[in-house]
Design goal:
442 residues; alpha+beta; Heat Shock Protein 90; 5-stranded mixed β-sheet; two-stranded antiparallel sheet; disordered N terminus
Length: 442
């Protein structure tokens, strides 16, 4: 046990030292350094055009000309944002999402200009074009100064001969005061200068990464989608999932009715018609056919009950999750322990999703898990409803395995549509624990 800990620490330390030594020559460092260098001329362009355009537009607002000028500047700043997101993606390796598209309420230039002027995203782009300039100056100066100084001092033993060969100085002059000058010309001073350069060279990549991290945050915050935009996208995606799920359920119900109860009832009607015709000619045969039809009616009624239970079980509406989940567990192929600890009943929609989630998971256990026992636990934590289904089967399940018939990916999509989360923990040979988290809506 002690050896294991020692090995881990040694590996971590070696990795840390190796990372420090590799940093100055890594591609990431050079890309981030190039990003900071390119940022200054681009920021000068952004700042100049944005400040000039905004000032001109604000000054012309007393006339109608100020509106198109401001709209044009905002559109230009959005173009700058597109370039900056591409630069961050290419050099910093960070993918910043596109902001929401600006949609005009009506067609025409006036409506388009109005949409631009009312767009918070467009004004954030303009703000970025203005405030990024001083930061770009700071980042450019710090990165270039540290980078050039570090490598120059590190390689000083290689090039210090330039001073005595081509100048009247014995080495690099640090300062001069009242006739006294200090030069880096002795072997000890040259070696010390190289060590200082080594320290700067090793430290500079981490300073550059810190500067680049600030740029990532600024670009993501001002040029990426806002929280509202992200939330709207999530809701639109969730709405699509709900619509697709509802359509699939309707198709399933129609198929079950057509292939099951409807077909059975059609055959039953034909049998009763034949029995009616034989009632006078052969009463015994007619009675036998009526008995068979009676059995078919019972089967059809059971199929309709199963279908109704699949749509929304009456026991869930009448008695809640505890009774409904116990009913589902009783039909499972393995023994299932059910524990429901809720202070009150959640909203009917959340209750229904929890029920069908457990039903789907127990079906997976019956079909695929090869388990001996399973358990279902439902409880409330804060403002969330938690549902956990566990078994001691073969494991190896994941949400990505929906193509194999587990249906976990479909469950995850349904839960995500209502701000829910599905977590699957399924080590091979140990068992599977699936936890569903839903919002609590009384």
């Amino acid at each position: 046990m002690g050896n294991g800990i020692g090995t881990g620490r040694g590996t971590g330390a070696g990795g840390g030292i190796g990372a420090v030594l590799r940093a100055p020559v890594e591609r990431r460092t050079w890309r981030e350094f190039g990003y900071l260098l390119i940022g200054l001329p681009l920021s000068i362009l952004y700042f100049s055009l944005a400040v000039t355009g905004l000032s001109l537009g604000a000054g012309l607002l007393v006339t109608f000309l100020g509106v198109p000028v401001l709209a044009g500047v905002l559109a230009l700043c959005r173009g700058f944002g597109h370039l900056e997101r591409a630069r961050v993606r290419g050099l910093l390796g960070t993918d910043i999402g596109e902001p929401a598209r600006i949609r005009a309420e009506k067609k025409g230039p006036l409506s388009a200009m109005g949409a631009l002027l009312k767009s918070g995203s467009a004004w954030r782009h303009a703000l970025y074009s203005v405030i990024h300039f001083p930061w770009a100056v700071f980042g450019f100066c710090v990165a270039l100064t540290l980078w050039a100084s570090g490598w120059a001092y590190l390689l000083y033993p290689v090039w210090f001969w330039v001073f005595p060969a081509f100048t009247d100085q014995p080495g690099l002059q640090l300062f001069q005061n009242d006739g006294y000058s200090f030069f880096l010309d002795s072997p000890a001073e040259i070696a010390l200068t190289s060590l200082v350069g080594l320290a700067l060279t090793l430290a500079t990549p981490w300073v550059i990464r810190a500067l680049a991290t600030v740029d990532r945050v600024v670009v993501g915050g001002l040029l990426g989608p806002s929280r509202l935009d992200s939330r709207v996208s999530e809701l639109e995606s969730g709405r699509g999932v709900v619509v697709d799920t509802a359509a699939a359920d309707l198709r399933r119900i129609e198929r079950d009715l057509h292939d099951g109860a409807q077909a059975r009832l059609a055959a039953l009607a034909m049998d009763l018609g034949l029995a009616k015709e034989k009632a006078t000619e052969d009463p015994r045969a007619a009675a036998r056919m009526v008995d068979e039809a009676h059995g078919e009616v019972k089967i059809a009624l059971q199929e309709l009950r199963d279908l109704a239970r699949g749509i929304h079980p009456a026991v869930l509406t009448d008695r809640g999750l505890d009774a409904a989940l116990s009913s589902v567990a009783a039909r499972c192929a393995v023994p299932v322990r059910v524990t429901v600890d809720l202070p009150a009943r959640p909203a009917a929609s959340i209750e229904g999703i929890a029920y069908f989630t457990v039903s789907e998971l127990l079906q997976n256990i019956s079909r695929h898990a090869r388990a001996r026992v399973a358990s279902v636990d439902v409880w409330k934590s804060g403002e969330r409803l938690l549902v956990q289904v566990a078994d001691d089967g073969r494991g190896g399940a994941s949400a990505a395995a929906a193509g194999a018939g587990t249906g976990l990916a479909g469950l995850a999509e349904r839960l995500d549509a209502v701000d829910g989360v599905l977590v699957v923990d399924s080590p091979v040979g140990v068992g599977t624990t699936v936890t569903a988290e839903l919002p609590w809506r009384p």
